[in-house]
Amino acid sequence: MSIDIDTARKVAHLARIKVAEDNLPELASDLSNMLNLMEQLTEVDVKGVEPMTSVSPQRLKRRVDEVTDGNYQDKILKNAPDAREGFFAVPKVVE
Fold first, then answer.
1. Rounded-to-integer distance, Cα 83 and Cα 77, Å
2. Mapping DSSP to helix (H, G, I), strand (E, B) and coil, where does residue 26 land?
3. What is the pLDDT of residue 18?
4. What is the C-alpha separation between 3 and 84, in angstroms, rounded?
5. Which Pfam families match (predicted)?
6. Distances (CA, A) of 34 to 18, 29, 30, 59, 89
């Protein structure tokens, strides 16, 4: 696919990139090269290829998914300017 100068100008405008008129042919060429590369990638047969999260196959470390209270209530409430009955106390703002 080939990008012409008018399309390059429109893409630059949509991307909010200021491109001088002298540089539009180079931008059009670069965009055309990118699209050609994408077309080449669509020709690659990827059937049976598993998606990867990194280049080296490794299993992410996992932990047991257990709901806990964190057991940090005392430490957290030490920083509160006012705490009552195990909660942060704040001034009443709604009558």
1. 6
2. helix
3. 95
4. 67
5. GatC (PF02686)
6. 20, 9, 6, 33, 58
Rounded CA-CA distance 33/39 in Å is 10
**Tell me, what's the pLDDT at 19?**
94
Q: Could you give the percent of the chain with pLDDT greater than 70? A: 100
Cβ–Cβ < 8 Å for 31, 66: no
Q: Per-residue pLDDT for 40 more than 90?
A: yes
Q: Using CA atoms, how far apart are residues 9 and 12, in angstroms rounded to an integer? A: 5
In angstroms, the first-to-last Cα distance of the chain is 66
How far apart are alpha carbons 35 and 43 in whole angstroms? 13
Tokens of 24: 């539009």
pLDDT of residue 55: 82
